[in-house]
Amino acid sequence: MTxxxxxxxxxxxxxxxxxxxxYSVLTTVDRYYLAWLKYRQQRAAEPxxxxxxxxxxxAGIHTRAGKPISSSTLRRYILSxxxxxxxxxxxxxxxxxxxxxxxxxxxxxxxxxxxNKPITAPHITNYSNDFERRWNALSHRxxxxxxxxxxxx
Length: 153
What we know:
Structural class: mainly alpha
Distance between the termini: 27 Å
Number of domains: 1
Strand content: under 5%
């Protein structure tokens, strides 16, 4: 049985199991991350929010209303994308990345929080559940279709 509304935990809006508890789907933010990553790989530089918005528009990725995604929408995710990249490197080595070690590596790469405050272990811990979900979603997605211009997203 298929339900329209599925929560992160894999239950329907009616509270019934969907059978998808161990399958993670890509969220909109995951797709933004993939676009950010593709930009970084293509240009050997991290995009800022304006560059990412332009990159998404060029790729034909728009809002539900068909408008370009605004840089102000994307700006809130850039720091988490940078941190996730470091976290994922740790996750590739262990099933439970140590927040202190991830924070250390972020600071060593000059990745800082708002107002140039250093990234801390509690900061990483706040992201851990979402990062693990993204890790699983990206690890279990089907291979890209090379014939599709936007297959990466």
